Amino acid sequence: MENKFEYTYSAPENAEIEKIRKKYAPQTSAESKLEQIKKLDNSVKSKGIICALAIGIPGSLILGLGMCCTMVWTNLFVLGIFVGIIGMVMCGAAYPIYKSTINKKRAEVGPQILKLTEEIENNK
């Protein structure tokens, strides 16, 4: 009779199991507050990105149309310059719109995040 010991370890498999387990395990109040803070922070970033893309992408397309008017359709040269300038202004406005959107959203969400962080620190 042979006594054998076999052991198999798979780090990626165990990591995946732990990830799934965390989804179904009851969360403590500190973990749920941390998740709330992460969601609030991500909402600030995503809203700024969405607003900047909503202005920047059409601006770049309009700029390209203006370039086509000046280089391909030469009879629309003057119109192409005006269209291109409008596109440049829109592309240039994307970053200031991003910054102002993030600053406004941070002002809205800031008190909630500070309150949650204080609660987490007080529970330690």
Shape: elongated
> Which percent range fits the helix content?
over 70%
Output the helix-strand order.
HHH
Number-wise, the strands total 0
Return residue spans where pLDDT drops below 50 for at least 5 consecutive residues. Answer: none
Q: Which class do the helix and strand fractions yield?
A: mainly alpha
Query: How would a crystallographer describe the biggest sheet?
Result: none
- Helix segment tally: 3
Q: What Rg is obtained from the alpha carbons, in whole angstroms?
A: 26 Å
Average pLDDT works out at 87
Proportion of strand residues: under 5%
Distance between the termini: 54 Å
Overall description:
Helices cover 84% and strands 0% of the residues. The longest helix has 47 residues, at 77-123. The radius of gyration is 26 Å and the shape is elongated. 6% of the residues are buried. The mean pLDDT is 87. Helix 2 (29-71) packs antiparallel against helix 3 (77-123). The chain has 124 residues and is mainly α. It has a domain at 43-123. It has helices at 11-24, 29-71, 77-123.
